[in-house]
UniProtKB/TrEMBL annotation:
Keywords: Cytoplasm, Cytoskeleton, Leucine-rich repeat, Repeat
PANTHER family linked to this entry: LEUCINE-RICH REPEAT AND IQ DOMAIN-CONTAINING PROTEIN 1-RELATED, LEUCINE-RICH REPEAT-CONTAINING PROTEIN 9
InterPro entries: Leu-rich_rpt, Leu-rich_rpt_4, LRR_dom_sf, SDS22/Internalin_LRR
One family name in Pfam for this protein: LRR_4
Highest taxon above the source species: Eukaryota
Protein name: Protein phosphatase 1 regulatory subunit 42
Oligomer and partners: Interacts with PPP1CC isoform gamma-2; the interaction is direct. Interacts with actin, dynein, KIF5B, KIFC1 and tubulin. Associates with microtubules.
Record localization: Cytoplasm, Cytoskeleton, Microtubule organizing center, Centrosome
Primary role: Regulates phosphatase activity of protein phosphatase 1 (PP1) complexes in the testis.
Organism encoding this protein: Mus caroli (Ryukyu mouse)
A GO cellular component annotation in the UniProt record: centrosome
Length: 225
C-alpha cells in the first residue's frame, strides 16, 4: 500500500529548498511529477502542488482517481495500466489537454464534461469482461465535440462507432483490433467527420473487405491515402 502524498513527493524529488523556504513554497514550484511503476494505489491531497502541469502515474495500482481537484494547472495526466473502473473527479481540470487511461478496467467513457481543452484521449485496451465492449456517454461526447483531435479506442471489442460523428474536430482516430465490420457504417461516419485525416483500423474485420481503403478515401474529403 503506497499513497502518493506531498511528503513522498518532496522526499523523492530533486527539490533543494533555500534556507528561508517552507515545504509548501518548495512544492509550489513543481511542474512535473513522475511516480510511474511505484506501487501507488491511491492519491492524497496534492493541493500544495499548485503549478503541477504533468503527472505521470502509469503502471501503478490506482483504482480510483481522487484528490486532483486543486491541481487545476494540469495539462497532461498519465494513468494508463492501473485498476481504474470509473472516470471521475476530473471536472476541475479545465486546462487538461492530454489524458491517458489505456489498460484500465473502464467500461464507459464518461465524466469528462467541462474539459473543454482536452485534445487527446487514449482509452485503448481496457480489461473488460468477456463479450463486453467499450461504450460512450453521449454527454461526454458532446462536451468534447469541439476540442478533441486525437482519440485512441483500440482493442476494446467495439463494433459500432457512429456515436463519434459528433466529434467535429477529430483528425486522428486509432481504432485497431476492434470488431468493426461494415464499410457502409464507416462511410456514414466519414461524411460527418470533415477534419479526419488519419484513421487506423488494422485488425478489424472490415479490413478484409475488398478495396475498403479506396472506398473510404473516396468517400472522405480529408482522409489521407
Amino acid at each position: 500500500m503506497v499513497r502518493l502524498t506531498v511528503d513522498l513527493i518532496a522526499k523523492n524529488s530533486n527539490l533543494k529548498p533555500r534556507k528561508e523556504e517552507t515545504l509548501a513554497q518548495c512544492l509550489k514550484k513543481i511542474t512535473h511529477i513522475n511516480f510511474s511503476d511505484r506501487n501507488i494505489d491511491s492519491i492524497d491531497d496534492l493541493s500544495l502542488c499548485r503549478n503541477l502541469s504533468v503527472l505521470y502515474l502509469y503502471d501503478n495500482r490506482i483504482s480510483q482517481v481522487t484528490n486532483l481537484n486543486y491541481t487545476t494547472n494540469l495539462t497532461h495526466l498519465y494513468l494508463q495500466n492501473n485498476c481504474i473502473s470509473c472516470i471521475e473527479n476530473l471536472s476541475s481540470l479545465k486546462k487538461l489537454e492530454k489524458l491517458y487511461l489505456g489498460g484500465n478496467c473502464i467500461a464507459v467513457i464518461e465524466g469528462l464534461e467541462g474539459l473543454e481543452e482536452l485534445r487527446e484521449l487514449h482509452v485503448e485496451s481496457q480489461r473488460l469482461p468477456l463479450g463486453e465492449k467499450l461504450l460512450f456517454d453521449p454527454r461526454t461526447l458532446r462536451s468534447l465535440a469541439k476540442s478533441l483531435s486525437t482519440l485512441n479506442i483500440s482493442n476494446n471489442n467495439i463494433d459500432d462507432i457512429k456515436d463519434l460523428e459528433i466529434l467535429e474536430n477529430l483528425n486522428h482516430l486509432i481504432a485497431v483490433d476492434n470488431q468493426l465490420m461494415h464499410v457502409k457504417d464507416l462511410e456514414l461516419l466519414l461524411r460527418k467527420l470533415m477534419k479526419l485525416w488519419k484513421m487506423d483500423l488494422n485488425g478489424n474485420p472490415v479490413c478484409l473487405k475488398p478495396k475498403y481503403r479506396d472506398k473510404l478515401i473516396l468517400m472522405s474529403k480529408s482522409l489521407g491515402g
